[in-house]
Amino acid sequence: MLALLTGLRHACMIRGVSGVWIDMSRLFQNFAVSAVALMLVACGSGNDADSKTTVVRGPEGDIAITTAREGRTLVAPKDMPAFAPAYPGADILSSTTMQAETGMEGSVVTMKTGDSLDKVRAFYDERARSADVAAASVSDTPQGSIRIFQSRDNAGTEKTTIISINEASDGDGSEIAITSGHQQG
Questions:
Q1: Neighbouring residues of 143: CB distance < 8 A, sequence distance ≥ 6
Q2: How does pLDDT run across 86-125, given as a tens digit for each residue?
Q3: Which end of the chain is more exposed for a tag (fewer CB within 10 A), N or C?
Q4: What does pTM read for this prediction?
Q5: Residue 124, SS3 per DSSP
Q6: Residue ranges of domains in the chain
């Protein structure tokens, strides 16, 4: 996974809404750290019937990972981009929030649905079109898709959203990861 993220990182210099080129390496580094932290979630510190939460403290900030317990699903975070909501009917498997001392904030939400890759891809493409948000980069293969979006919220904050859709590892439906981040102030 880290090799995949490293390869993607080198291909992710994108031009933001403001016309400034953005090096996505920080976002991918934070995503890689959260992926490693997800592997550590079994040592979770939060306890409730549906989920467990682990907070990983690092030199650049904190990462909080909440995962659904076996057979459970989480509620979608409220701060997901309007054009990239939780997929209807999908099980939300994990929700990760990152907050760095540098002002970078972001989240990663992972989901699983019984729907096909094509159906999920069409849903997110239509949501983006309806919101008038154009993808800065699109990559489609028979096994998966990645869309990278640059947008501005009402306050003018530039945000990056990555939607990754893959065939489910168990062969039943699709797995979705929505990564969203922005630089504060």
A1: 117, 166, 167
A2: 999 999 888 888 777 777 888 889 999 999 999 999 999 9
A3: C
A4: 0.69
A5: helix
A6: 2-183
